Fold these 2 entries.
Entry 1:
Amino acid sequence: MRSIYLVPLVLAAAVAGTAVAGKGSKQVRYHGIHPVPKSEGGGLCYIEGPHVHIFAANKLEYRDHRGANYFVGDPVAYGYDGPKHTYKGHHPIHVHAVIGDRDEDIEYCYLDGPHYHSFAPPSGPDFEVRGGVNFYVGTPAPVYLEARPALVKVNAVYTPLTYERPVVTVEPPSAWIGVRAGFAPAAVVVEGRPAAVVVPGRVRAGVDVVVPAPSLEVNIGVGAGVFIDGHHHHGKHKKWRKRGRGRGRW
Amino acid sequence: MRALPLLLVALVACGDSAAGGSREAIIARWKEKGLTPSAMTAAKVDVGKDCQSGTVDKLDVLLCVYPTDAEAKAAEDAGLAWVGDTTGMAQAKGSVLIVVADRKKSDPSGRTINQMMK
């Protein structure tokens, strides 16, 4: 009985709350840890839950998660000192799993080469771990390729940053998205590259140069427009099901 | 039959205790984490009817108690309005809405706010 009477109150409170919150026009919503712009003091914000700041997020390092900005970049580049996991190349991020939401939200990380995230990948066959490095070997949703030309530009953000990047000394799996036909960016491989040695020093802007002398491997990301079919793609997809590998959710 | 009124009284008493206790429990948890909450005083704000404000370390804090969890959740946006143009957070924990605002910019890394909300 009590709840029946409270329903209008709750609805009124919700409406009033939204209206009042609208006054805080400078507030920008974030969810999870993220870098703080240098103009605001720099470093990292360690608030894991939904919160607000009065500075904006950039389009390359953040994805929209239910109206909040979710950071998909490498936090170590900004001084993050918490638990971290090593990845190489592009991969999906199960945002809902990382922050504990019920609604599925899968975004894509377009960082070339070795990098860190504060979260581990979801368990299952889509990621293969070699030498402590997570390689994405699954099949991405179509939006991954659609948004890649625009979002791979995130690497330009990391090129000038100086920080201790992960060193990967294992050969990637053959199914790794970075070398698989249909997904790998244009690549130039000079003969003579010794096997099983990959020592990238930096995450580069669309250009990952691996030089274990005397060899040379160059992976070149392709950049293009941001708008596709009049829609701004953010490397996000929801409720997409992979076909052909006998699994539902990934 | 005689037990029924007693049971109802007991339930009401528990409800009141839980509502007040929740706020006290939150403050007690902050102390356990090494934070230093100030005395909380009644606050007349648009966020709710039963609110108390104070500080935790140098952060401004508002704790509002609602009859239900849903009402506390629904008041989160109103809590963010109280935060204003600064870093902050408004999160319902059961029937208590916790609102934190870093108006003095004392927590640039957000670690204290994060600790308070965990």
Entry 2:
Amino acid sequence: MRNYANPSNFLRLTGVLTPYLAALTAALLCLGLYLAWFVAPPDYQQGETVRIMYLHVPAAWLSMWIYIVMTSAALGTLVWRHPLADAAQKAAAPLGAAFTFLCLVTGSLWGKPMWGAWWVWDARLTSVLVLFLIYLALVALWRTIEDPGKAARAAAIFTLVGAINIPIIKFSVDWWNTLHQPASVFRLGGPAIAGSMLWPLLIMALAFTLLFATLHLMAIRNEILRRRLRRLSILAADAAGAEFSPASTSFGAAR
Amino acid sequence: MTADPHFGFVIVAYAIAFVIIAGMILAILRDYSTLRQALSRFPAGQRRGASEGEAAPPESWP
């Protein structure tokens, strides 16, 4: 593991892993979509609208999972000072924002025909909206602070504070009386969903998770290259500055 | 399937998901291509030198 803390080694590993991960993700997505559309039956109450679940639930799980990954990376930045932890955290934030946005939009499209409303200020919906805003704030934070070290520490602290929202999202349906349904897969009495619907859902969830893993690796690679470019640009600027410093410049007076 | 009165909502949800996922993939690939192009302007020797100091934490850390 320590060996992959070296960005050059990490880049080599990413180069090898990415094509396999991308192929596996594509295959699982195709299988999941086939099962969700042509094998899973319509719900006896919701009809065909239940097919939105195969997008909404994996996106919702990922929105929280990505934040947990970012929280671990924040600890890696602050406690262990792992050189890739900050890059991993920064690369995950836009992906987390995108999956949370997908969760909110598909939830809204599911809610309108089932609840009769695009949006309600329900505890689950509101806490997920807060998560989306936290992701956007983190992306903005990295773009606002120019110094990468200061930005990394500020973002890591902000991420750790924001982590309190994850259990709130998870247990909001138990703690408050919400319009959103309670957990139907990960619950004490076992899944409250028929196997014909559960398997396509789990395969889509696995496909989405692999999609995130692939995109995250690619985004970390980009972050390493961006830092390399920054370092080279600073070195080039320093070299140019030394060349044109007052001591070495004659301003043409001796001519 | 298409006879369901709410089928349009399902189609729109999948269309939006496609756009968001394709957008993420394209944005990352475009970023990678731009970075590679920008890095290729520097000589190979300098690029190797820049990669050597990367295992350390960011420079402004205490």
